[in-house]
Protein backbone atom coordinates (compact mmCIF):
# COMPACT_ATOMS: atom_id res chain seq x y z
CA UNK A 1 0.00 0.00 0.00
CA UNK A 2 1.12 3.52 -0.67
CA UNK A 3 -0.19 7.03 -0.54
CA UNK A 4 0.79 10.34 -2.12
CA UNK A 5 2.68 12.71 0.12
CA UNK A 6 0.63 15.60 1.46
CA UNK A 7 3.09 18.38 2.27
CA UNK A 8 1.84 19.97 5.50
CA UNK A 9 4.35 22.75 5.16
CA UNK A 10 4.44 23.61 1.48
CA UNK A 11 6.05 26.89 2.44
CA UNK A 12 9.25 24.91 2.08
CA UNK A 13 8.42 24.88 -1.61
CA UNK A 14 8.55 28.66 -1.67
CA UNK A 15 12.24 28.67 -0.90
CA UNK A 16 12.88 25.96 -3.45
CA UNK A 17 10.84 27.65 -6.14
CA UNK A 18 12.60 30.95 -5.57
CA UNK A 19 16.04 29.44 -6.09
CA UNK A 20 18.15 31.49 -8.47
CA UNK A 21 19.66 29.49 -11.29
CA UNK A 22 22.50 31.87 -12.03
CA UNK A 23 21.89 31.93 -15.78
CA UNK A 24 22.38 28.18 -16.07
CA UNK A 25 22.15 27.17 -19.74
CA UNK A 26 23.48 24.53 -22.07
CA UNK A 27 27.01 25.94 -22.01
CA UNK A 28 27.32 24.53 -18.52
CA UNK A 29 26.90 20.97 -19.76
CA UNK A 30 28.81 21.05 -23.02
CA UNK A 31 31.55 18.77 -21.77
CA UNK A 32 33.17 15.58 -23.02
CA UNK A 33 30.85 12.58 -22.90
CA UNK A 34 32.65 10.85 -20.03
CA UNK A 35 32.13 13.96 -17.85
CA UNK A 36 28.57 14.70 -18.89
CA UNK A 37 26.91 12.22 -16.53
CA UNK A 38 28.78 13.69 -13.55
CA UNK A 39 27.74 17.20 -14.54
CA UNK A 40 24.12 16.17 -15.12
CA UNK A 41 23.99 14.53 -11.70
CA UNK A 42 25.40 17.69 -10.11
CA UNK A 43 22.78 19.86 -11.82
CA UNK A 44 20.02 17.46 -10.80
CA UNK A 45 21.09 17.56 -7.16
CA UNK A 46 20.90 21.36 -7.21
CA UNK A 47 17.17 21.30 -7.92
CA UNK A 48 14.36 21.45 -5.40
CA UNK A 49 13.59 18.01 -3.95
CA UNK A 50 10.14 16.84 -2.85
CA UNK A 51 8.98 13.52 -1.38
CA UNK A 52 5.91 12.59 -3.38
CA UNK A 53 5.09 8.97 -2.50
CA UNK A 54 5.53 7.07 0.77
CA UNK A 55 4.94 3.35 1.24
CA UNK A 56 3.85 1.61 4.43
CA UNK A 57 7.36 0.29 5.00
CA UNK A 58 8.73 3.83 4.97
CA UNK A 59 10.23 3.71 1.47
CA UNK A 60 9.92 7.18 -0.02
CA UNK A 61 9.97 8.21 -3.65
CA UNK A 62 11.29 11.71 -4.32
CA UNK A 63 11.27 14.00 -7.31
CA UNK A 64 13.47 16.85 -8.46
CA UNK A 65 11.77 19.90 -9.94
CA UNK A 66 13.30 22.47 -12.28
CA UNK A 67 11.63 25.84 -11.68
CA UNK A 68 12.13 28.78 -14.08
CA UNK A 69 13.70 31.94 -12.69
CA UNK A 70 11.25 34.06 -10.72
CA UNK A 71 8.76 31.21 -10.39
CA UNK A 72 6.22 31.54 -7.57
CA UNK A 73 3.37 29.49 -6.07
CA UNK A 74 0.14 30.19 -7.92
CA UNK A 75 2.02 31.05 -11.12
CA UNK A 76 -0.03 28.60 -13.19
CA UNK A 77 2.87 27.54 -15.41
CA UNK A 78 2.81 24.56 -17.79
CA UNK A 79 4.65 21.49 -16.56
CA UNK A 80 6.25 18.31 -17.89
CA UNK A 81 6.77 15.02 -16.06
CA UNK A 82 9.77 13.15 -17.48
CA UNK A 83 9.81 9.37 -16.96
CA UNK A 84 13.31 8.14 -17.79
CA UNK A 85 14.20 5.05 -19.78
CA UNK A 86 16.35 2.07 -18.83
CA UNK A 87 13.75 -0.69 -19.30
CA UNK A 88 12.94 -0.50 -15.56
CA UNK A 89 16.34 -2.02 -14.78
CA UNK A 90 18.81 0.86 -15.15
CA UNK A 91 18.41 4.09 -13.14
CA UNK A 92 18.73 6.99 -15.53
CA UNK A 93 17.28 10.03 -13.77
CA UNK A 94 19.74 12.40 -15.42
CA UNK A 95 18.53 11.51 -18.92
CA UNK A 96 16.26 14.53 -19.23
CA UNK A 97 18.36 17.11 -17.37
CA UNK A 98 19.35 18.91 -20.62
CA UNK A 99 15.71 18.97 -21.67
CA UNK A 100 14.60 20.46 -18.36
CA UNK A 101 17.27 23.17 -18.57
CA UNK A 102 16.03 24.26 -21.97
CA UNK A 103 12.37 24.29 -20.97
CA UNK A 104 13.16 26.72 -18.15
CA UNK A 105 13.60 29.39 -20.84
CA UNK A 106 9.99 28.84 -21.89
CA UNK A 107 8.67 29.14 -18.35
CA UNK A 108 7.93 25.40 -18.24
CA UNK A 109 8.33 23.51 -14.96
CA UNK A 110 10.02 20.11 -15.35
CA UNK A 111 9.59 17.23 -12.92
CA UNK A 112 11.97 14.26 -12.83
CA UNK A 113 10.58 11.67 -10.41
CA UNK A 114 12.01 8.58 -8.80
CA UNK A 115 9.88 5.50 -9.32
CA UNK A 116 10.24 1.86 -8.39
CA UNK A 117 12.23 -0.34 -10.74
CA UNK A 118 12.68 -4.08 -10.90
CA UNK A 119 16.40 -3.71 -10.20
CA UNK A 120 15.73 -2.24 -6.74
CA UNK A 121 12.26 -3.43 -5.72
CA UNK A 122 10.16 -6.56 -6.05
CA UNK A 123 7.61 -4.96 -8.34
CA UNK A 124 5.62 -5.91 -11.40
CA UNK A 125 4.72 -3.81 -14.40
CA UNK A 126 1.34 -2.80 -12.97
CA UNK A 127 3.09 -1.41 -9.86
CA UNK A 128 5.39 0.85 -11.88
CA UNK A 129 2.49 2.05 -14.04
CA UNK A 130 0.54 2.81 -10.87
CA UNK A 131 3.46 4.92 -9.65
CA UNK A 132 3.17 6.99 -12.83
CA UNK A 133 -0.50 7.70 -12.14
CA UNK A 134 0.28 8.58 -8.52
CA UNK A 135 2.86 11.10 -9.73
CA UNK A 136 0.25 12.78 -11.90
CA UNK A 137 -2.23 12.84 -8.99
CA UNK A 138 0.36 14.37 -6.63
CA UNK A 139 1.07 17.20 -9.06
CA UNK A 140 -2.61 18.00 -9.44
CA UNK A 141 -3.11 17.97 -5.67
CA UNK A 142 -0.25 20.45 -5.20
CA UNK A 143 -0.68 22.60 -8.31
CA UNK A 144 -1.01 25.92 -6.46
CA UNK A 145 1.94 25.39 -4.12
CA UNK A 146 4.13 24.25 -7.02
CA UNK A 147 2.95 27.08 -9.25
CA UNK A 148 1.74 24.85 -12.07
CA UNK A 149 -1.43 24.65 -14.14
CA UNK A 150 -3.04 21.21 -13.74
CA UNK A 151 -4.72 21.66 -17.13
CA UNK A 152 -1.34 22.02 -18.87
CA UNK A 153 0.61 19.01 -17.61
CA UNK A 154 2.48 17.01 -20.25
CA UNK A 155 3.72 13.47 -19.60
CA UNK A 156 6.91 12.46 -21.41
CA UNK A 157 9.21 9.48 -21.48
CA UNK A 158 11.72 7.27 -23.27
CA UNK A 159 11.40 3.51 -23.87
CA UNK A 160 9.54 2.11 -20.80
CA UNK A 161 9.22 5.65 -19.49
CA UNK A 162 7.21 6.27 -22.64
CA UNK A 163 4.94 3.37 -21.69
CA UNK A 164 4.44 5.03 -18.30
CA UNK A 165 3.53 8.34 -19.95
CA UNK A 166 1.01 6.60 -22.20
CA UNK A 167 -0.50 4.73 -19.26
CA UNK A 168 -1.23 8.06 -17.57
CA UNK A 169 -2.72 9.51 -20.74
CA UNK A 170 -4.79 6.58 -22.01
CA UNK A 171 -8.14 5.62 -20.42
CA UNK A 172 -8.43 2.13 -18.96
CA UNK A 173 -11.58 1.30 -20.88
CA UNK A 174 -12.08 1.94 -24.56
CA UNK A 175 -15.04 4.24 -25.10
CA UNK A 176 -17.82 2.44 -26.99
CA UNK A 177 -19.45 4.06 -29.96
CA UNK A 178 -23.08 5.02 -29.56
CA UNK A 179 -25.21 5.50 -32.62
CA UNK A 180 -28.10 7.42 -31.07
CA UNK A 181 -26.54 9.08 -28.04
CA UNK A 182 -23.43 11.16 -27.65
CA UNK A 183 -20.68 9.35 -25.76
CA UNK A 184 -19.61 10.91 -22.46
CA UNK A 185 -16.23 12.70 -22.54
CA UNK A 186 -13.11 10.86 -21.46
CA UNK A 187 -11.71 11.54 -17.98
CA UNK A 188 -9.50 14.63 -17.90
CA UNK A 189 -5.85 13.64 -18.21
CA UNK A 190 -2.64 15.33 -19.33
CA UNK A 191 -2.85 17.92 -22.08
CA UNK A 192 -0.13 16.19 -24.11
CA UNK A 193 2.16 13.18 -24.36
CA UNK A 194 5.75 13.24 -25.65
CA UNK A 195 7.45 9.99 -26.60
CA UNK A 196 11.17 9.70 -27.35
CA UNK A 197 11.52 6.20 -28.87
CA UNK A 198 8.90 5.07 -26.36
CA UNK A 199 7.48 1.57 -26.04
CA UNK A 200 4.06 1.68 -27.70
CA UNK A 201 3.37 -1.99 -28.40
CA UNK A 202 3.86 -4.75 -25.83
CA UNK A 203 3.21 -7.52 -28.36
CA UNK A 204 6.30 -7.03 -30.53
CA UNK A 205 9.27 -9.35 -30.20
CA UNK A 206 11.74 -6.54 -29.59
CA UNK A 207 10.24 -5.84 -26.15
CA UNK A 208 10.27 -9.51 -25.13
CA UNK A 209 12.63 -8.79 -22.21
CA UNK A 210 9.97 -6.81 -20.41
CA UNK A 211 7.18 -9.36 -20.87
CA UNK A 212 8.16 -10.91 -17.54
CA UNK A 213 6.81 -7.81 -15.80
CA UNK A 214 3.27 -8.60 -16.96
CA UNK A 215 0.83 -11.49 -16.99
CA UNK A 216 -0.61 -12.46 -20.40
CA UNK A 217 -3.83 -10.65 -19.54
CA UNK A 218 -1.93 -7.51 -18.52
CA UNK A 219 0.10 -7.51 -21.71
CA UNK A 220 -3.19 -7.09 -23.54
CA UNK A 221 -4.92 -4.66 -21.18
CA UNK A 222 -1.87 -2.41 -20.71
CA UNK A 223 -0.85 -2.43 -24.36
CA UNK A 224 -1.12 1.16 -25.67
CA UNK A 225 -1.94 -0.06 -29.18
CA UNK A 226 -5.23 -1.53 -27.93
CA UNK A 227 -6.22 1.54 -25.89
CA UNK A 228 -6.12 4.27 -28.53
CA UNK A 229 -9.45 5.97 -29.23
CA UNK A 230 -10.86 9.39 -30.00
CA UNK A 231 -10.58 12.33 -27.63
CA UNK A 232 -6.98 11.74 -26.51
CA UNK A 233 -4.33 14.37 -25.66
CA UNK A 234 -1.87 15.87 -28.09
CA UNK A 235 0.94 13.51 -29.06
CA UNK A 236 4.51 14.29 -30.05
CA UNK A 237 6.43 11.18 -31.01
CA UNK A 238 10.02 10.88 -32.23
CA UNK A 239 12.40 8.07 -33.08
CA UNK A 240 15.81 7.49 -34.65
CA UNK A 241 15.48 5.57 -37.91
CA UNK A 242 18.74 3.68 -37.22
CA UNK A 243 17.64 2.49 -33.77
CA UNK A 244 18.72 -1.16 -33.44
CA UNK A 245 17.16 -1.72 -30.01
CA UNK A 246 13.64 -0.45 -30.65
CA UNK A 247 12.42 -0.13 -34.20
CA UNK A 248 11.25 3.26 -35.43
CA UNK A 249 8.44 1.39 -37.20
CA UNK A 250 6.78 0.92 -33.81
CA UNK A 251 6.52 4.69 -33.37
CA UNK A 252 5.36 5.19 -36.96
CA UNK A 253 2.60 2.58 -36.55
CA UNK A 254 1.45 4.13 -33.28
CA UNK A 255 1.34 7.59 -34.84
CA UNK A 256 -0.90 6.28 -37.63
CA UNK A 257 -3.36 4.72 -35.19
CA UNK A 258 -3.41 7.88 -33.07
CA UNK A 259 -4.24 10.02 -36.10
CA UNK A 260 -6.70 7.46 -37.51
CA UNK A 261 -8.75 8.03 -34.37
CA UNK A 262 -8.78 11.76 -35.17
CA UNK A 263 -6.32 12.77 -32.46
CA UNK A 264 -3.76 15.54 -33.04
CA UNK A 265 -0.13 14.41 -33.32
CA UNK A 266 3.27 15.09 -34.82
CA UNK A 267 5.81 12.43 -35.81
CA UNK A 268 9.53 13.11 -36.14
CA UNK A 269 11.74 10.37 -37.62
CA UNK A 270 15.43 11.23 -37.53
CA UNK A 271 17.52 9.95 -40.42
CA UNK A 272 20.70 8.07 -39.38
CA UNK A 273 19.95 8.62 -35.67
CA UNK A 274 20.26 5.63 -33.33
CA UNK A 275 18.86 4.75 -29.89
CA UNK A 276 20.85 7.52 -28.19
CA UNK A 277 19.56 10.35 -30.37
CA UNK A 278 17.83 12.15 -27.50
CA UNK A 279 21.04 12.55 -25.46
CA UNK A 280 22.64 15.95 -25.91
CA UNK A 281 26.12 14.73 -25.02
CA UNK A 282 25.92 11.92 -27.62
CA UNK A 283 24.14 13.51 -30.57
CA UNK A 284 23.72 17.26 -30.14
CA UNK A 285 22.25 17.72 -33.61
CA UNK A 286 19.46 15.15 -33.13
CA UNK A 287 18.81 16.45 -29.62
CA UNK A 288 18.36 20.00 -30.91
CA UNK A 289 16.21 18.92 -33.86
CA UNK A 290 13.92 16.90 -31.61
CA UNK A 291 13.62 19.51 -28.88
CA UNK A 292 13.00 22.29 -31.39
CA UNK A 293 10.29 20.30 -33.20
CA UNK A 294 8.59 19.41 -29.91
CA UNK A 295 8.65 23.00 -28.66
CA UNK A 296 7.25 24.33 -31.93
CA UNK A 297 4.44 21.74 -31.83
CA UNK A 298 3.52 22.68 -28.25
CA UNK A 299 3.58 26.41 -29.04
CA UNK A 300 1.50 25.92 -32.20
CA UNK A 301 -1.07 23.99 -30.15
CA UNK A 302 -1.29 26.78 -27.57
CA UNK A 303 0.06 24.74 -24.65
CA UNK A 304 3.33 26.67 -24.29
CA UNK A 305 4.11 30.32 -25.06
CA UNK A 306 6.76 31.87 -27.26
CA UNK A 307 9.87 32.79 -25.22
CA UNK A 308 10.03 36.46 -24.32
CA UNK A 309 13.73 36.61 -25.12
CA UNK A 310 14.43 34.42 -28.13
CA UNK A 311 18.09 35.46 -28.14
CA UNK A 312 18.51 33.79 -24.75
CA UNK A 313 16.96 30.57 -26.01
CA UNK A 314 19.22 28.04 -27.67
CA UNK A 315 16.94 26.71 -30.36
CA UNK A 316 14.35 29.30 -31.38
Structural features, described:
By secondary structure, the chain is an alpha/beta fold. 30% of the residues lie in helices and 20% in strands. The protein has a nine-stranded mixed beta sheet, sandwiched between helices. Helix 4 crosses helix 6 (160-169).
What keyword list fits this structure?
alpha/beta; single chain; 20% strand; 9-stranded mixed β-sheet; 316 residues
Tally of DSSP β-strands:
9
State the distance separating the first and last CA atoms: 45 Å
Report helical residue fraction.
25-40%
> What are the secondary-structure elements, in order, as H or E?
EHHEEEHEHHEHEHEHEH
Q: What composes the largest sheet?
A: 9 strands, mixed
The main sheet orders its strands as 1-2-3-5-4-6-7-8-9
Q: Count of helical segments?
A: 9
What percent of residues are in strands? 15-25%
Oligomeric state: single chain
Low-confidence stretches: 9-32, 175-181, 183-187
Q: Tell me, what's the shape?
A: globular
Question: Overall mean pLDDT score?
Answer: 85
Radius of gyration: 19 Å
Structural class: alpha/beta
Short description:
The chain has 316 residues and is of the alpha/beta class. It has helices spanning 11-17, 33-46, 97-104, 125-141, 143-146, 160-169, 216-221, 248-260, 284-300, and strands at residues 2-4, 48-55, 60-66, 77-83, 109-113, 148-159, 192-198, 234-240, 265-270. A nine-stranded mixed sheet has the order 1-2-3-5-4-6-7-8-9, with helices on both faces.
Write the layout of secondary structure elements.
Layout: E1 2-4, H1 11-17, H2 33-46, E2 48-55, E3 60-66, E4 77-83, H3 97-104, E5 109-113, H4 125-141, H5 143-146, E6 148-159, H6 160-169, E7 192-198, H7 216-221, E8 234-240, H8 248-260, E9 265-270, H9 284-300
Parallel strand pairs: 4-5, 4-6, 6-7, 7-8, 8-9
Antiparallel strand pairs: 1-2, 2-3, 3-5
Amino acid sequence: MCHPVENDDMNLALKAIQMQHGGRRMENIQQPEHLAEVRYQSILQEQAEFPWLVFNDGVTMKCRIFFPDGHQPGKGAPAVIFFHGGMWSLPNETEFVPWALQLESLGVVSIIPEFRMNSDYDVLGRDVLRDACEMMAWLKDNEYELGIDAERITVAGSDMGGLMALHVALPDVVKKRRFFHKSPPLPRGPVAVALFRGVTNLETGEVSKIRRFFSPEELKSFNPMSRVQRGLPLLFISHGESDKLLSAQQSADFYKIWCKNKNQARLLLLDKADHAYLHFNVNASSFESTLSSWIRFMIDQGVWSEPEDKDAFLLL
